[in-house]
């Protein structure tokens, strides 16, 4: 795969976004409203792998760059710069929470998640955790909001760790973080 083809149409705007991201901040994609330029053959798989023209993007720095200019409008995902807006496909959610750090305990506990692209979010009122259950199998899919409508699927090993530190509250089994209780499963469904 030739990574130059990916950045060539918008090298100037992507470079600007990269400079902003490298300074520790994220580009203000919520303020940018360029014309829609069409769909790009880019896809983010459920496991967090980014593909361009059907081939995995092998450069983590490039994936990080693209992740900083990602925006969700309604149910659709876009890469947005000051001058371009292109649609991409996201199989589930764009990020995967690959680890988390626990501070405190009980109702005073905080959980800070790290994503596969290097973002961090502390679960709480601004970064809620939600769990969807498969209607057929009942298998849970846990998510945490990372930023501006962009969620991360909490990976299996991290979810098991969450269950290990979970507790019962108001008829639910779940976890505390940032002063909020996030339900996982009704207590009476645990065996």
- The whole-number mean of residue pLDDT values reads 88
End-to-end span in angstroms? Answer: 49 Å
What's the total helix number? 4
What summary fits the major beta sheet? Answer: 6 strands, mixed
User: Taking Cα atoms only, what radius of gyration do you get, to the nearest Å?
Assistant: 18 Å
Helical residue percent?
10-25%
Strand order of the largest sheet: 3-2-1-6-5-4
Which series of helices and strands comes N to C? Answer: HHEEEHEEEEEEEEEHEEE
Q: Structural class, judged by helices and strands?
A: alpha+beta
Shape: elongated
**pLDDT < 50 stretches:** 1-15
What's the number of extended β-strand segments? 15
What would you note in describing this structure?
The chain is α+β, with helices and mostly antiparallel strands. 18% of the residues lie in helices and 42% in strands. The strands form 3 sheets. Strands 3-2-1-6-5-4 form a 6-stranded mixed sheet. Strands 9-8-7-12-11-10 form a 6-stranded mixed sheet. A 3-stranded antiparallel sheet has the order 13-14-15, with no helix packed on it. A hairpin with a 4-residue loop joins β8 and β9. It is elongated. The protein starts with a helix and ends in a 5-residue tail after the last strand. The model is unreliable at 1-15 (pLDDT under 50).
Quick overview of this protein structure:
The chain is an alpha+beta fold. The chain is 18% helix and 42% strand.
Topology:
Blueprint (H helix, E strand, L loop, with lengths): L2 H5 L3 H12 L13 E9 L5 E3 L2 E2 L3 H9 L1 E4 L2 E5 L4 E6 L4 E9 L6 E6 L4 E3 L6 E5 L6 E8 L2 E5 L1 H9 L2 E3 L2 E6 L2 E7 L5
Parallel strand pairs: 1-6, 7-12
Antiparallel strand pairs: 1-2, 2-3, 4-5, 5-6, 7-8, 8-9, 10-11, 11-12, 13-14, 14-15
């Amino acid at each position: 795969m030739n990574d130059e083809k990916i950045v060539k149409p918008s090298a100037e705007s992507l470079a600007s976004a990269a400079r902003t991201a490298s300074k520790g901040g994220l580009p203000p994609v919520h303020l940018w409203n360029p014309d829609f330029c069409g769909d790009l053959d880019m896809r983010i798989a459920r496991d967090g792998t980014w593909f361009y023209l059907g081939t995995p993007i092998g450069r983590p720095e490039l994936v990080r760059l693209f992740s900083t200019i990602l925006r969700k409008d309604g149910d659709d995902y876009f890469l947005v710069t000051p001058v371009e807006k292109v649609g991409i496909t996201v199989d589930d959610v764009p990020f995967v929470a690959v680890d988390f750090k626990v501070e405190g305990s009980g109702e005073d506990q905080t959980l800070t998640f790290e994503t596969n692209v290097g973002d961090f979010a502390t679960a709480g009122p601004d970064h809620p955790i939600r769990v969807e259950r498969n209607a057929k199998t009942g298998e849970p899919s846990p998510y945490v909001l990372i930023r501006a409508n962009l969620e991360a699927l909490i990976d299996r090993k991290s979810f098991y760790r969450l269950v290990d530190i979970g507790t019962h509250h108001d008829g639910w089994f779940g976890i505390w973080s940032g002063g909020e209780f996030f339900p996982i499963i009704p207590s009476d469904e645990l065996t």
